[in-house]
């Protein structure tokens, strides 16, 4: 039931504050991750983790890419992320004490299942953790450890609340591995937990900018292409924004790490190429600002979703939408993704596409 919403996608976008509260429920308390969050036996596995290998497809892959920045930066645990269809056909090398994490909304994605089956054939003792939204799925049945994302049923083909709850689940994994392996200071754990508890409210604030995002969507609807730029954990968020836009509005969209502009994509920039970027307040902001100057100097129309304190202002052909303020490195990708979901949604509605059921796509990709 879509309730008061015109599409399931919009309903599911608006369910995110509650979905995330549900993901956190009973798993954190008093500034800590609770020992039972990942089930019995998890701590012993996490204590000896030396590497993390994440396997996923599509939107779930983008969530994994964000987690890679967290694991390496915060825990100093090497973390690799790969799309399942490549991973399981290239004969990958997995070193001992690698925690394999399969990320999937449906738990029935053929490539993701094939990848974990291959790993299990190779070494039945190697632990596989499933982060999944479907309790009865094949992935959940075939994994050793499970964390349910608890997003609730996701009907829209374009994934939104599943992605946000995957990010929160990966943050819980970061905490659990950090604690069990002694790689995270207690004060850091408390900071991250406090940040996670604020995420539902901050998403709600970001959702309240929906009307402004719809106005921006009107400026994009006639475009044929769009370029999404981000740095650090915002690079996978740019990829996710581009995927959402292409999936449901059929506008060709590409994402690049902003630092790669000069290495090729800058050649595409002129007044017909809108550039969409995400500007949180972090140590990369100055670099991002110079990338922004490069594209506006070449006549691109620029759309920036920014931290209120980023010091960016709208001008001719530059549209700055302040989204949030003072968010940490775990919360930032979760929150800055929200306006990109809304942007894709509103562009698709304006174009009149079948938003919940985009052409050629299936909700669950059960064949390779
Ligand atoms: C995009 C989308 C797909 C899925 C992908 C993986 O909006 O929904 O890219 O993310 O097919 O699906 P799951 O997570 O079910 O394995």
From TrEMBL:
It catalyses: D-fructose 6-phosphate + L-glutamine = D-glucosamine 6-phosphate + L-glutamate. It comes from the Bacteria. GO terms for molecular function: glutamine-fructose-6-phosphate transaminase (isomerizing) activity. It is an enzyme of class 2 (transferase). Its main location: cytoplasm. Its EC number is 2.6.1.16. The active site is at residue 363. Transmembrane segments: none annotated. Keywords: Aminotransferase, Cytoplasm, Glutamine amidotransferase, Repeat, Transferase. It is found in: Cytoplasm. Residues 41-183, 216-358 form the SIS domain. Catalyzes the first step in hexosamine metabolism, converting fructose-6P into glucosamine-6P using glutamine as a nitrogen source. Homodimer. This is Glutamine--fructose-6-phosphate aminotransferase [isomerizing]. It comes from Guyparkeria halophila. The chain holds residues 250 to 617 of 617 of the full protein.
